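Weekly modeling sync, notes
Attendees: S.R. (lead), two postdocs, one rotation student

Agenda item 3: backlog of single-chain predictions. S.R. asked that every request posted to the team notebook include the full sequence so nobody has to chase files. The rotation student volunteered to paste the first one in as an example of the format we agreed on. Action items at the bottom.

Example entry:
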Amino acid sequence: MASEFAEVEIPKRAARAVRVCVVAPSPDLVGGQSRQADLLVQGLRDDSSVRVGFIPHNPRLPGPFALLQRVKYVRTVATTAAYWALLLARLWRFDVVHVFSASYYSYLLSALPAVAVARLMGKRALLNYHSGEAEDHLANWPLTAVPGMRLAHRIIVPSGYLVDVFARYGLAAESIANVVELDRFPYRERAASAPVFLTNRHHEALYNVPCALRAFAIIQDRRPDARFIVAGDGSMRQHLERLAGELGLRNIQFVGRVSTDEMARLHAEAGVCLNASDIDNMPVSIIECLSSGLPVVTTDAGGIPYVVRDGETALIVPRNDHTALAEAALRVVDDPALASRLARNGRDACQAFRWSQVRARWRDAYVALASEAKPAKADAR
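Predicted structure, as returned to the notebook:
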């Protein structure tokens, strides 16, 4: 996938192939949606029943216009205008428009325009909503959230949790899971869980990394040999480092944002993953831990109980309860049989997130939508 202003050209295929335009953040933006979009486009290129094009939410402007994207505020206006222009210029070529969506202003500026333009052009619009903040978004943006989403012909979300949230607002959604690159996180059998703890979430308020730090303070009182690896970055980074000092934490390492290969190495080094999020949907980071055989202790935020089962594939505690998080983590370290059972069950459960399991669901969704659409007048490029 490319994020240039020029669109990706896909080789021609059979005349009956469904022409799908994926509209999503480009790989230039590090994040779950951009990675999922990239995996989807790359995975479908060899499927003869689907031809895929791509329009980025954040197109890079060509030539001297690129200078506008270096100026604060100006870049938002320039990028948004370029994006809307691409929608108007290119969506008419496709049968189905697959629109990735987050919440709030991202939805308003990126997802809603794509759905609206698709409808105006008589195309079938598929809204693929990913945010764990859906409940708040739907409740507090009444003029644009639910009415705008009703424009989509189909709403697809990554978890049963979001299906239930949307249903409470009268929106019918179905679940197709995110793809997880399990082969990049090989399973490692652990005889026992070492007192090495890992957290890997963005340093933003909704992921409540301070709760994990407070839990580690309790853990360290009981296990002075314990270590804590804090991966990730974000607006709260300095606050977290100050909090670690205030709590008197020892043997703690802030490693920042790391590559996939480096994260796999950290999984092998750690004995327990701590996830303290307050708001969540389908955290790929937890599934990657399961693939690695790394036992997970997590809060019950959002869609997490739809992904793991308490006592079977992970230990689940209430949100914002650092004492419960610490006690559950120490259970895993102190009970090798429990750690081994969680690891084995977790590895088996995460197989449902492989591309081979998800691919047919997307293909069937596109074919079903295209059967309702008028044929596009020209080849998608």
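Discussion: group reviewed the output briefly. The two ends are 13 Å apart (CA to CA).
Action items: rotation student to repeat for the remaining queue; S.R. to check formatting next week.
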